[in-house]
Structures are given as C-alpha cells and as structure tokens.
Amino acid sequence: MSLKNDGRMGTANVHNQMKTKMELRNMRFYGYHGVLPQETLIGNEFEVTVVLEADISAACRSDDVKDTLNYADLFDRVKKEMQTPSQLLEHVAGRIYSRLTDDYPHITSLEVRVAKLHPPVNGEMEKAVIIIRS
Fold first, then answer.
1. Any idea where the domains of the chain sit in the sequence?
2. Active site residue 116
3. Among residues 19, 21, 80, 116, which one is catalytic?
C-alpha cells in the first residue's frame, strides 16, 4: 500500500487489494420441503444463510447501489427458490446456489446454508443444516 505525504493510504491501492465478503444471515422462510407427508402438507420453518465474495470495490468508491450486490435482490432470489417445494434440503440449497451464480457471474465464492428448524426426528433437534460451497 502506498502512503500519501499526509500518512493516509492511497485509495486506489487499497481498493485494488480489497476482498469483499457479504453475508445474509438467518433469512427466515416457511416452506414445504421434506420427504414425510406432514412436511409437504403442514410445512416447517427454515433458515437460509448466504455468504459470498465478489469484487464490489466500485461501490466503496461510488456509494452507489448499482455498483454492489443489492441484498434485497439477493433475498428475493432466495425467497423464490424457497417457495418451490423439494424433498431434500440438498436440492433446495443446490437451486439457491445455481440461481445466485447464474444471476451474478461475478460472485467468486459462495456458501449456501439451508436449515430446517425442529425437523421431524424421534427426539429433539434444533435444526438440520445442509451447506454447499465453492
């Protein structure tokens, strides 16, 4: 990094070296995913977390939403995939992963976590989580 005469870092060099990670944590949805009949009839609560990396350094300079990944748009894409019933959480997570990487090719790294809260097991469990990542 270069230092300017006044001791501040030169912004061009800082932005060129910057890595940006964005997290959308614990998005909540009600869905009908599962293999048991009651899961597809009654449904269940789900949490989705998305962690991604992309070069959004332009937004750091411009302060303009068009230069970043708009998290409201990301949320809407995840929500749309969560509205389509699947038997397996792996399938739901895979669809979310594909949707985001197809719609945002400048994503360089992606992790998708899909959790079913209080899944139907013979006992007590807070959540079952599937994680897909690049």
1. 19-133
2. yes
3. 116
